[in-house]
Amino acid sequence: KIMFKKLRSLIGKLFNENQQMIIVMYLSDFFWFLRKYFLSVIIEYPPEFIENWTAIRKNSSQDKERNFTVYQMIKVHNEIFKNKKTSIIEFGVDRGGTLTTICKFVKNETEIFALDSFGFYADDIKDNVTNYDSHYLGKYRPFTKQTRFKEFDYLSLEKQLNQVLIRKNSQLDIIKCHFPDKIDEKYLKKINSKKYSFVHIDFDLYKPTIEAIKFIKPKLENGAIILLDDYNFINQEGVKQAVKDSGININKCIQTQSGQLICYT
Question: 184: Cβ–Cβ under 8 A, 6 or more apart, which residues?
Fold first, then answer.
């Protein structure tokens, strides 16, 4: 574990954010190829998932397997809450890979909220790093407007996805903020007033993750699903600690082979 942590930290110092994402994608593809070869396990991905993955891959901070988990859990959510109006919230949008998957495959009559700093609050993110987030201490450089989000327009993404959602009588609000410290009061009031049936959390760090969990726990519908990214990532230990400290019942959760945690309420 220590060796892998050092290797991951070295990659983080040698390559910028976008280069790291490319490396992660290729290494993941290679790993799952070897797993398929030696275990003779083949998943027949639905054509609609493959079409979506091909379109979002260049903008995704997830690999194919993690995105497939999101796709599957949205399908489960749709069955649980069939014929009901629902609200979904995502904490940590990055360049919109996961959000696009959610919007494309979610059922009708769903309101979606998505929160991220989009590099605008990069300096503030440093204040969120705790001793649980050792990988991010010291020379850690968070995603900035000039690096990861260069030439990325979250408002254009919102407009594009709403063109898909309007046909489902649904709507998306993308909220630029530094949750929970810096968020427009009107948006805070709006997301505070909802009950959520599906939650995706990809904040990487201990403090924003536990704040997100505390925020949504009293606002969950019966049968709601929480999907946490990075739960078993060795360089994002803060996420696992946040889950532990939040009081989530781990016995009602499933850990995936791709590092995520699926929680049922």
Answer: 175, 177
